[in-house]
Specification:
A: about 140 residues; about 0% strand; globular; B: five-stranded parallel beta sheet; about 20% strand
């Protein structure tokens, strides 16, 4: 396993516990590999630390599912997904989130034995931006 | 004669409340739709407390139907559209006719896919006298 994913233990533990039902379900149904599951948990923990977000089942379930399935697909060597203009437009100015995802996926690449294609990075970024926006809105309301 | 029971649809994914509203509107009073989490929605279908599942994700691939596939089984689900695959009446009709009960598509196809899916479900039910 790569040593470049650097999130701290408590964050990783929270992620593993929060999404255990979901990832169990996906792994047991054969849609997600054990390797992709482990990388998903580590990538989420790294992104949480890097961006200061807390991933929960309530607001991050789709992202977690997407990430685990995408990493499984990439590891398997499936054809790259197509990206739509709508998606690229949505994330055009989200440099911070895209760079965070790109960095984490660069760290995953040696374990996956493949580079993560840019369209996959775009979809991951899109999901992440939705979570960041919801949490920012919530923080604003609380503050 | 008794009114037929409404068809119960659960919607999950990107902007599920809007998906549910589109489904309900497309059903013309014959469809009751609710927005739920993907695992909860699929479990309701599994238990027979809902009839159909519609799911979206940004790519229309894995995420839209991942929970439904795990809970209902691969033979019960079908992807009707992705950014590279237009949603067609023929594909939806075929999948409904095969008895599939969970349908996935890309979020950007929501407004075209859902009315088509509902139309084909209603036609399928009518043909079977349900």
């Amino acid at each position: 396993m790569t040593n470049d994913l650097t999130a701290d233990g408590p964050v990783q533990a929270q992620i593993a516990e929060e999404f255990s039902d979901r990832l169990d379900m996906l792994e047991e149904s054969g849609q997600v590999s054990k390797l992709a599951r482990r990388l998903t948990e580590m990538a989420l923990a790294d992104l949480a630390t890097d961006l200061g977000v807390r991933f929960t089942e309530d607001d991050s379930a789709q992202f977690v599912t997407h990430l685990a399935i995408a990493l499984t697909r990439i590891n398997r060597g499936d054809p790259a997904v197509e990206i739509s203009a709508v998606t690229e437009e949505e994330i055009a100015d989200r440099v911070r989130e895209r760079e965070a995802v790109s960095r984490v996926m660069r760290d995953c690449a040696p374990v996956l034995e493949r580079a993560v294609p840019e369209p996959e990075i775009s979809y991951m970024t899109l999901h992440l931006c939705g979570i960041v926006d919801v949490q920012a809105e919530r923080t604003g309301q609380d503050g | 004669m008794n009114e037929p029971r409404p068809i119960r649809v659960v919607a999950a994914g990107v902007d599920a409340p809007t998906m549910a509203k589109i489904a309900q509107d497309a059903g013309g009073g014959r469809v009751e739709a609710a927005a739920l989490g993907d695992m909860q929605g699929a479990r309701l279908v599994k238990k027979g407390q809902a009839d159909y599942y519609i799911g979206t994700c940004w790519s229309g691939g894995g995420g839209a139907l991942a929970a439904a596939t795990a809970i209902l089984g691969a033979k019960q689900v079908g992807i009707v559209g992705t950014p590279g695959m237009v949603v067609t009446e023929e594909r939806v009709r075929t999948m409904v006719g095969e008895g599939r009960i969970a349908f996935g598509f890309a979020y950007e196809q929501t407004t075209t896919a859902i009315p088509l899916i509902i139309k084909e479900i209603l036609a399928h039910r009518d043909a079977r006298g349900e």
